[in-house]
Every structure is written in C-alpha cells, then in structure tokens.
Amino acid sequence: MTTTPTETAPATASPLRRLLPGAPAGRDPRGSTLLRHLAVAVFAGTLVVLVTNQLAPYQNLQVARVCAFLCVTAGHTVLVGLNGQLSLGHGALMATGAYTVALTQQALDERAVRGWWTLPASLLAGVAVTALGGLVVGLAAARLRGPYLAGVTLAVATLVPAVTTIFTGVFNGEQGLSFPAQTPPAALGAYFQPERWLAWIALAAALLTMLLLANLVRSRFGRSLVVVRDDEVAARLAGIPVARTQVLAFVVSAACAGLGGGVYAMLTATVAPGKFPLDLSLFLLMAIVIGGLGSLAGAVWGAVLLVALQDLPGLLTEHLSLSAGLAQRLEGNLALAVFGLVLIVVMLAAPGGLQGGVRALTARLRGAVRRRPATRRSPDR
Amino acid sequence: MTAVLEVEALSSGYGPVPVLRDVAFTVPAGTVTAVLGANGAGKTTLLRTLSGLLRPTGGRVRYAGEDLRGVRVEHLVRRGLAHVPEGRGVVTELTVAENLRLGGLWRRDRADARRALDEVYELFPALARRRDHAGHQLSGGERQMLAIGRALIARPRLLLLDEPSLGLAPKVTAQIMALLRRLRDERGLTVLLVEQNVRSALSVADQGIVMSLGRVVTAAPAARLRDDDQLRHAYLGF
Amino acid sequence: MERFWFLTFDGLAAGAVYAAFALALVLIWRAARVVNFAQGAMAVATAYVGYAVVSATGSYWLGLAAAILSGLALGALVERVLMRFAGPGGPLNQVIVALGLVLVIQAVLGMIFGNEYRPAPAPFDTDALTIAGVAALSPYDLWVLGAALTVVALLAVLFTRTPIGLRMRAAAFAPEVSRLLGVSVGRMLTLGWALAAAVGALAGMLVVPTGLGLHSHAMDLVFVIAFTAAVVGGLDSPVGAVVGGLLVGLILSYVTGYLGPDTTPLAVLVLLLAVLLVRPGGLFSAARARHV
Q1: What is the nearest CA distance from C82 to chain B, expressed in angstroms?
Q2: Per the UniProt record, which residue ranges are transmembrane (chain C) (predicted)?
Q3: For position A251, what pLDDT does the model report?
Q4: In the beta sheet, which residues pair with residue B191?
C-alpha cells in the first residue's frame, strides 16, 4: 500500500524525518491544526444542517445513514490505508456497537430512566464494548506479521451473526431487538420532522469522529501509523512499538465502527443479525477502497456510496422491466457483481480511488492557475 | 583469444537511481577476471545487470558473440552462463542434494547431469557427507561450495561469482580461490569474480577491473594491479 | 462412550476435508505469500460446474473430474489475470482483489443459479455403518476421508519426489536464485494457484453434500474453519495444515455433539483467537511471535 499517498501528510518527506519531535514537517504553517479542523467541521456541519431543513423525511434518513456509515468508513480507512492493516470484520464491529446500544437503551427504558443523556451514554457504552472487542482481536492478530488480522476479522464477520442465535435469551435470535425511537426535543416544536432530528444526531457523531480522526492523523501517533505501514524496521529503529501501534490503530478503528453501528441502530430503533451479514463487511472495505484508501475525504465518498448501494438494486430491477424470475435473481446480485468488479479494477488500475482522482484533478487545476502568468516550462527542462 | 563477454556502454540502476554508468570491458575466454572496488561501487549491480535480474537502461551485453537483450533470466543458464549471487544463493530450506538437483533440472542430457553431480561430490567431499542436511545447517564455507558446485552442474562457460569470500575464514577463502584456479586451468572455465577481498581476488585473477561510483576506472592485468602502488592506494586501499 | 466414538469418526471425516482445504491455503501462502480469501468462492464455483456435469451426464465421477479440471483452470486464470498484476502493490492489494473476486463469483453464481439451495446428492450412502454395535462412519464419510487423504499423499509425493515439485518449492523459497537456475518462477506460481484451486475444488465437492446443498455462500464457513486449521498448524507448514484440519474437525465435532450445533461458530472463533493468543506460530511453524 505504499503507493497510496496519505491524506494529510504527503509521502515526499522521509517517514523518519516526520517522526522527529518538533520536526517542522508536522507543523502547519497556517496555525493550529485543531482550530482549522474545527472550522472545517463547523462549516460542514452548518451546511448539512441547512440542507436537512429542505429535505423530505426519506432523504433525511439517507443523510443520517451516510453519517452513520461515515463514522465507520473514516475509522476503517485510517486502519487500512494509513496503517496497512486489513480488517474484513468492520460489519461485525458495527453489530457489536449496535447491539450494545440496543441493550443499553432497552435496559434504561425498562427502569424508566429517561433524559437527554441516555442516548450519548448508550453510544458511549457501544464504543467502549466495541473497542474492547477490538482489543482482543487486535492482540490476537498482532502476535504475527502477515494476513492474520484479515483472517481473524473475516472469521469474526462470518461467525458473529451466529452468536445472536446462540444467546437467544439476550439477543433474541433472528428477530433482533427493538427499543424506543428517538424523538425530537419539545423545544424544536411539535411539528419538527423526526427524521431531521435523527440526521442531526448522526451528523454530530460523524463530525465528532472526523474531527478526532483528522487530528489523530496529524499527530505523532498518526505519523507512526504510516511509518509502521511503510517500514517496520525503520519504525522500530525510531523507537515506535510496532505491534502496539497496530493494536491501538485497530482499537481506534473498532471504536469508530462501534459508534457508527450504534447510530445506525438508533435510526431504525431496531437491531437484527440480518443487518450485519458478511457482505456488509466486504461492502465497507469496497467503499473505502473506491473512496481512496487512507483518505478521510475518501471515507465521505465511501459512505455516500454505501447508502446509494443500498437503494440501487431496487431501482435497477424496477427500471429494467424484467421477468419476475430473472428480476429476483438479478436483485442484489447485479449490484454485487458490479461492485466486486469495480473493487478489482480500482485496486489494479487506480489504487488512489475517487479521492486520488479528485486530488490529481485539483493539483492539475492549481498547477494550471499557477503556471498561467509564467512562461510554460518545457518538460525536459 | 576470443572474448566470452563483451560489455559496451552499459548503464543500469534501481528505479530512477542510476548506479552503473557507461561501463565497458571484455572478459577473454578461459580467464579469471576480478571486479574490484569499494562498497557501493556498483559491483553487485553489474553482475545483476549482466544476468538480467536488472534491466539495463542503456548499452549492450554480448555473451559468446550474442546480444543478451531480451533473453530471459531463466534461459541464461541453458546457454552456459551461471550466476552465483551474493550471500551464497543456497536455498536454505532445501537439502544439499535437492539444491544440487535443482541446478541440473533444466538439462536434457540426464546422463551428463548425473556425471556432473558425481564430479561435484568428488570435488567437494564435504557436500557428499552432508547430502541430506538442509542448507541452513551448513557452514558458510560449505554453503559457498554448494552454490559453486550447483552452478558447475550446468557445465557453464562463464561463471559470475559475487563475493564468495564474504564472511569466510582466510583459509576457506584460499581454498575457494584455489578451486577457481583449478577450474580455469583444468576445464577452461571463464570466471567473472566480484570481490571486496582484493588480495585474494588478485591472487587468482588474470586481469582486474577497478570500479568506482558506478564507472570502470581501470582495467589492467592482475600483475600490474598488484604492483602499481598508486592504483592500489587510490582505489583498493592497501 | 459410543457417542464419543461416533463423534470422533465424524470429526475425522469432516477434518479431512478441512485439512485438504487448509492445505490449498497453505500452498498459495507458501508460493505467493498471499492468503487466498477467494478460495471458498472459487471452490463453490467449481462445485456448481461439477454438479452441472453430474446432472447432465448422471455420473458423479465425471462431475468430480469436471470440478477438479475447472479448479485447475480457474486457479491459473486468477493468478495470470488478476494476482500477477495486483502483486506489485503488495499483499494488501492482492487480498482486496481476492475479496472483489468473492463478490463477483458469488453474484454471478446467484444470477445464473438463483439464490436458493440446490440439492447436491452424495455418491454413496450417508447413513452410518454400525461396527460392533457402534455407529461409526457412513460409506460417504469413508469416501471423503479416503479422497482427502489420497490428495494429501499425492501432494506430498509431488512436492518431495518430483522435479516439478522441487521447482515449485525452490521458486517459493528463493525466487531469484531459482530463476538463475533456469526455473520459470512465474509458471511455477501459476501452477501453484492452479493446484491449490483444484484441491479446493475437490474439497468443495466433498463438503457440499454434507451441508445444506449448493449455494453461493456454501463455503463461507468452511473457508473460515480451514483458515483456522491452517493457523492452528502454522500457515507455513503443509503437515501442520493436515494435522490442524483433522484436529479442528475433531474439536468441532465434539463441540457440536456435546454442546449443540449452534455453538459451532463460536467454537471456531474461540479456537482461532486462543491459538493466536497462546501459540501464535501454530503447532508446526517456525514463525516467531512478537511481544505486544
């Protein structure tokens, strides 16, 4: 994955140099990174809030779903793209967060505990439990170099849905769990669109995730992620604990997936194993690959893609007027085939993904603007 | 004397980094040619380019009068060009016998391959004794013997040998050099020998090529290199 | 005690299939340093081919041959067309390409054959024979055990006793040196993928009749179990894959028999995590664990 440039730190400087404490490469000349990220987040948040005011309920739910997936894809792309560790189990991690939130919400409701803080508390519990699960998986996989994380997480993704049927008493098997839906606070007025409120909550979670990850990526830890990916020996020489960094990266990524899963469960106020099949984990991977591995902006593309993907199969078969039998076979499968193919083609031909394309385009535009006043240099100098 | 190897204006490198620049020399048949020079002079890169492991960025290599451009690495050994890479090139997971068998798998003349194998065991009795030991169980000297022996099974005309003395005791190094002399004298083998150990290399070589920073700075008979104090001080450091 | 013996025989028969499948994984891992995550999907695809031939000709054996041959072809194709070009980007790219392949294969199978389980009849009786009052193996179990172990033995002979096996091992261990000795490393890699996919195809044909039938996801769980078996034995060790497969087959059989079939998936997960945490290198591998 050395070919994938990182979102915020161009790979031109030597990785070791960027690691040195106080190395100028890590500082941003435009002032505090945190403030800048905060400004971007506030701007993006305001924009989305304004947009949601114009949208119909179903569209607002789509926005909310994009935000829920964004929590997951952002954490996932940092793990795979920047740290070079492949997880095929982020769908199962989402399920962990979702079930924890559902169980917590149910328990609170049964004890008639109510208040604005119950949802944040449940989400926090979801994040904590998922991070803990991530710790176990990460520890197991980090003992050896190689494909172990991919294998273990694939096992988790394949097997975790079955766990819900083993402990039917807790998880209620295939049926899943349901809990009271979120309602907009009275202060927003009696006729406030509930879906808009859900979109706002999801947006808050997504912005928080993006903000934290954006700063993490720019931090010392973020730089060590990249060094560990590119050169384990160099990382060790620079004093970076390689295995621990990998485990920590997986835990952070799992926590994000837990939050996303919890928000995802909140949107429908239900959870069921059927919502978290093996394919979901593969879709998540596909989304970040197509978005552009290692890029937080690419994670946004990926999240949008995932929601579009869920709505696509119905659309396709609806408009193609096929026989019932054929339509049933194509339903879902056609999209799967196309996306599998896209995944392969992107990986072989354009590992930078969509965001890589966007970056190349803006660089070219910027170059064109900058070049215009000066005389054009010949390519051979 | 005909030249087995003619190198003209050869350049090559790793990616955008050039290592060899405009290298030219010839290796006469039946001689030992030593390639000398400091660490990083491009000696190993030269051998890797000659045997096609690295694609040259310019110039030409003629082996036995034939241009080697476009000849695949796997086919060179069939033409009698054997390369023993740095670090012994023994497949450590395989046994001695398997390593030697591997050296002759491509040969159509099974009977001669078997004869060559017997000759190698005769030449290196130590290998015959350790036939069923894995490569990683051998000593450094034994590994070098195995690598050279395996190359001999191909009945090569030209042997490219990369740092055979690396990490070996002086006595073992002397044995290897004596062996090279014998192979040249008895079988007419042509050897291109890359060495850091200048004294050992010049003790067996007929001519020497001195490299520095990717270029050939001097090519001269070995005796002259041994005696020319100025050259020795400038490039060979003794 | 009777039940114990029954479960033991049953576990060995299942374990033999896991062993063959794990062996196929290890073959590719050793040759190319990639875990072929598409192996389950590839095996299902070849099983569909096999059973299409079975229903067309009425002969199980022709179907079996067709499955194995299509496995050889599919494996070679995947290496030549995909993996060769994904390779330079590193193992991560190859794994992602393999996962893309999983999506494509499963979707295409679903489009052609539909999403329901199709019957996959076994060539022999699947009712257990009773030996000395103990219900032991069924004739089909015997065939599975025999076929899987035969393949393992054939592979062992191929790799240790034949020139092509020596070439393949050398190409895997030391590609550059092998090329200098006249071995076409690229061809050996293609052959390795072809062989592994053929072994996977056989394992698929053996395991499908013991499950719910033919389905594009029929090998998902088998793949995970085989990966676990390979990890138990050590990904680098063919002997380990075989022993690991049999061991995992036995453990799962006991767990299923004594605790109920629902617990099998959890047992696989616990086993995989436990092995990695306690003895990460596997039982037969020389790989060294890191401290975390």
Answers
A1: 23
A2: 6-27, 34-54, 60-83, 95-114, 142-159, 188-208, 214-232, 239-260, 266-287
A3: 96
A4: B32, B159
